[in-house]
Design brief:
heterodimer, A: mainly beta, 4-stranded antiparallel beta sheet, 11 strands, B: 110 residues, mainly beta, 6-stranded mixed beta sheet
Amino acid sequence: DARVTQTPRHKVTEMGQEVTMRCQPILGHNTVFWYRQTMMQGLELLAYFRNRAPLDDSGMPKDRFSAEMPDATLATLKIQPSEPRDSAVYFCASGLREEQFFGPGTRLTVL
Amino acid sequence: GIQVEQSPPDLILQEGANSTLRCNFSDSVNNLQWFHQNPWGQLINLFYIPSGTKQNGRLSATTVATERYSLLYISSSQTTDSGVYFCAVVGGTSYGKLTFGQGTILTVHP
């Protein structure tokens, strides 16, 4: 049963700490997306990769967020330093053509 | 960018009732997906339906791309159908970026 996996599922940290979230896309999918869900903003795109190359990260605060794909089986989203306003659920999604499939999300709480 | 509006924002049903959820979008789309976010927060793919009609059990969906709307039908609703239903689209110039509506919160009472 192919699915997107994300770790950790929950993360509580203090303001100023570094946070790294990981995603394993579905094997064979060539697009990877990072979305963030908050009560105020809903679901919004942070970054988008195709064949491991970043295509769009305009939704990401550049000074503190970074996204990478070190290989085809791993995508990372890093926040350094974290702030309370970063508290949200971060979803990774992958796709081969148009349809996107979402992972279970990482619930981040920054105190 | 493309705008996505969903209605109604909230819906309360008794088990066994039928319902129709609507999604309007402001421009042509390359992709339209319906998701169910369950009470545990997981986003479950229901339909990939940029045009036409599809059915999966008690659920069906229709997208009329020329008129810029999609409908999700839920028949014989069950308590497990409760959650938030999202419509999300990829606009013609958005190369993969899903823009989500604000969702319809569905509550099904036994």
